[in-house]
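dude i think i finally got it to work??
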Amino acid sequence: MMKKWMAAGLLLWGGLLAAAVLTDDFTKTDPKTNIPLQWRPYRRVVNGASGIIRNQTIQQRPTVVMDDNSAGEIGFYRAFPAKPGQYWRASVMAALPPGGEENNAFVIQLSFFGANKHLATRLEVYDQTFRRYEVSMQAPAGTTYMRCYIYSHKDPVGSVALRDFEIDCGEKPFTPPPAPARPGWRQLLPAQAAWNTDNVEITPAGAMIKSTGKSAIGKKGAAPDLSFRVKVPKAGLYGIRTFTSVDAIGAKLMLKAKSKFESMAAQLQIDHARPTERYIFVPWSRPDRCAQALGYFYFNGKEQELKVWLP
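look at this
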């Protein structure tokens, strides 16, 4: 039984003890690797490829650019001494390089070794204006040192330009920054939505599988958990993004996860096209907030059904 949900939509697309530990404008790089000096390369080769890092003059200054159009991963990291209880904040200015394609799959990440805890912020670049993106976290118990990574984490993701890295450490939490403003053409398109009342409940946090329900991902003929009726302005490729959170059980599962391959995935299907699975929550996100770019999908300009099966 499907119940109509008319209010639905689909997004297409201090303290005195805190002091700067390091600033790096990324203008000085190793001539062999093209990564900033004192940073180390991070690379995960898949099918013999992992993208490239290069230098490019943008707006009349040297800039580090990462290109990743392969199934591998590319980036760099730097280690810092850290102790349990310290608050850390890292940030970087990021933009699309000239000719770059919007991707939203590069991240800046803090990893606390000894505690095996990680937190990342997605570099949601969409034009050539540089904007600051930051991530902050308290060093957990057991921390022996910390690494800051800037890298791509899934295939293929396009390009990003980077400059003006900063990192701070203190004994008090840092105030979260406002989210970078989005361009006007990113909008919430009206969409009729319905949910499977036998398997799904709607909570203040959003739609989720009932405690008595089960995920039907991969089960042939299973009714979708969510269904959106969508009509885009004109035929073409449209990006789909999700905004998710997890409950206490999900948070525990994500704490135990050791890699991105243990992320939570949903299954999507447009009309009768082939279903596809996409990650909607990754282990390094905050339990109450995870924004994921699921990719670009073709919509024909007529009314269509977007079906979603939840994890």
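Confidence is low (pLDDT under 50) at residues 1-19, 183-187.
im so relieved honestly
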